[in-house]
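Continuing the batch. This is chain 6 of the set; chains 1 through 5 are on the previous pages. Same settings as before, nothing changed between runs. Recording input and output for traceability.
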Amino acid sequence: MTTLMTYAGPGELDALVTRTGGTPLAPPGAAWPSCATCGGPMQFLAQILLDDLSRPVGEGGAQADRVMAIFMCQNDPGMCDEWSPTAGGNRALLYPSDTLQPMAAPEPDIEEDVLRLGAVNAVTLVPSPSVDYFRAREEWANRSGNSMRNVLGQLGGQPDWLQGDETPTCSTCTQPMMLVAQLEEGPDHATAMNFGGCGTAFAFACGPCAQAAFLWQC
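Output for chain 6:
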């Protein structure tokens, strides 16, 4: 089965839900992440509630009560290896879901579009009997009369790689990580994430080690 993440209209800026855009929620004192290459603050892309997953991200339901926040550098697109899971041009962070609050943005003179997407996309989770992500997208579009661009991605499941398999290994236990979400750029320019104009992105986690990784392919 595939769980599609479909566009559900404008969302709330700081809601504790799975969404793209808006303001990241984090524990008190958490710092806005910076790019390892250019040193500038990253753009917040998406928030994923791991409780929404149909299977655990590790033994014993290790995903429970955690939130993933995904960031990517957009200070000089294409120059900071923001596609790579290890180069430091993006970050996927896991936080416990209690005591979360809106993360304070860095210095106020930073341009807003560098820090946030232009709008918030609310997400509806739609189960599909197909285990193939692309087929599930196509079937949903045909059944609902929606454009496939209104599929924001999938939650869990198997990665639909555009290139070769790049499943990351956990830096702590060295085991392959499990897919948390596959993300599409979005239905329109105002909310689009920059994955090269034609790409798709992948967020992974190792629940027992509380480690996460993010990458995209085009």
